[in-house]
Description:
The chain has 313 residues and is of the alpha/beta class. 28% of the residues lie in helices and 23% in strands. A seven-stranded mixed sheet has the order 8-9-7-10-13-12-11. A six-stranded parallel sheet has the order 2-1-3-4-6-5, covered by helices on one side. Helix 1 (12-21) packs across helix 9 (284-298), helix 4 (118-126) packs parallel to helix 9 (284-298) and helix 5 (137-151) runs parallel beside helix 6 (185-195).
Amino acid sequence: MIRAAITGGSTPLAGEVIKILINHPDVEISWIHDTQWEGAPVSEIHKGLRGDTYMRFASEAPMDDIDVVFLCDENSGENRRFISANPPADKTKVVDLSGEFLDDATFADGDKWIFGLPELCRKPLVRGAMNSAIPGPLTSVVLLSLLPLAKEQALVDGDIHVTAVVAEEDADPGEAIALIDLEEADHIVRAIKSLQPEFDKSLTFMVINGGWNRGISVSTHFKCSLGEAALRKMYEEYYADHGFTFISDSLPTINEVAGTNKTIINIQKVGERAVISATADNLTKGGGGNAVHNMNLLFGLSERVGLALKSQS
């Protein structure tokens, strides 16, 4: 049995991890760390857990018997401070959901931190990796929209334009969150270059708050000399052995992916431009579900175990 621990236990991302792990057949949660809520029932913060767990938030973090720790604290620098104050045992694997360690993450076997997108880095994750850093939901969905082309060195015909509609509780519905530049662009470009080293196109972004509770919808378009049939074949071949990304004949919707670890992608050619539309659940595929997917790979489990989640539509 894998003994798991969670930091930043009151955050929404931690809630998603907890909801998945309490039903995971190979995992037992040892403690959920959150000093602000010490002693409070976890189900008081994460309402969907009422009746499923009677655990309480802890202020102590004994690492000796922990096999994996999920870092979910949203406060800048807090996860690095936690690891410094509570060094993991040599056997303990670390999955970072906060983004703090993403700059340290690479794409090669044997490195200290692995970029935690299984559709890109499954081999390093299963070949003895100890730590993975989960990319944010927008980074993940944009990359899933582009990886098959990058693998074939085919992102060469034009600059890439991304329109994303996201769930953002701190913005009004329809409010623009990012225009043209995006902080996550550096991670996206790094990941693309891990497959297509000569990639030199620019990415521009329009990110808008959709006003819904969860879900992300991304449309990526760029000039492309390939036809629609060739594009679809490329995507189907790339994702053929990946169990959570699917190619659809119709435009995907948020309802199809809400509460699941799926990404659904539609491919169209409009004139000389390829249009790749993709949807995912930002808290599951973009967070907790992806983190558990990483854990499964780090421990040599079937990647789908514990992740047969159902849509909330």
